[in-house]
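Problem 12. The chain below contains 370 residues. Write out its predicted structure in token notation.
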Amino acid sequence: MAPKRPTGAGAFPKAVESPAPRRPDPDALYAALDLGTNSCRMLIAQPKGSGFHVVDSFSKSVQLGAGLERTGRLSRSSMSRTVQALRICQQKLKRNKVTRMRLVATEACRRAKNAHDFIRQVKRETGLTLEIIQPEEEARLAVISCAPLVSIKTEQLLVVDIGGGSTELVWIDLSSVPRRDRPAAIMRLHAGFHPPESPFPAAKVVDWISVPLGVATLRDQFHDVEDDAARFALMSWFFEENLADFAPYKDEQARAGFQIVGTSGTVTTVAASHLGLKRYDRTKVDGLRMTSDQIDKVIRGYLELGPQGRRRDPRIGEDRQALIMSGSAILQALLRCWPTDRLSVADRGLREGLLYAQMSADGVLEDGPF
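Solution.
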């Protein structure tokens, strides 16, 4: 027999009110904005234990450096697109009442003749103050963002940040650092590649280089080469030529104890292709380890697809398809020089480094990010 419906006051279930989510304390919030040659990206976060919790974010392809190789200047349309994106960032900062922030611009603004006019335009139209950082700081911030991915077994570490306008490489010797302290030693580089004396064992920066070739600028160098495979080969060769002044370039590196950490849209896209992801999933990509052979197989697959096939491939995506081969050419050149079975994929970079550096300087993280 079916139960009877109750009458009167008990006729309807009593609503259970869930408390509204608490807005984070604005005094605990930090922001980091990275304006690169191709993208504008921002994170707003609050410290949480030894890391941070992201409260809000923004990412958009603005192609600020479009035409820069040819003219040496930021175009009016590129600046207009970028200012529109920065207005959205300004609204998010205002809505969250963020006061602690670093808003930085990189290679496109370092190279453009009219960069300072653009910085003034941004200030006038959005109220945001952009800071053009130098290559060493960009490299350092990329390194510390990747600290949590460094294996305790790693003795020699190469961190590679493939950007839109430049590629930063940092070679670090960890052999004198006790194993359990190696990731923390990387984090301490936020104070500089040659920090002052410290009671803690130090990571030694053997060499670093900023190559003024990223996925956008390298593509533009060879835009007139029509054959897809020939253009790829030329880009890879040309990038390797630009590594000649990097100290460890000629040294043969044993695979045991050697780790490359790669941070960029190129590396995460290659990882997503390797995993066969039709929808990008950061939790599966960030921290993934790949061998040289696995990466080479993905790149060969891109070449076999050709331009039209890459355009239709959901693993590559509409935003990335125009830049994936120049990024792959850089990646292949690096793996030709230093083959590895331990390339760690980092879906993190300058923004995370900016946040870690600010929070670490303020002493709000618990014993570094580990």
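Discussion. The two ends are 60 Å apart (CA to CA). Students who got a different answer should revisit the alignment rule from Section 12.3.
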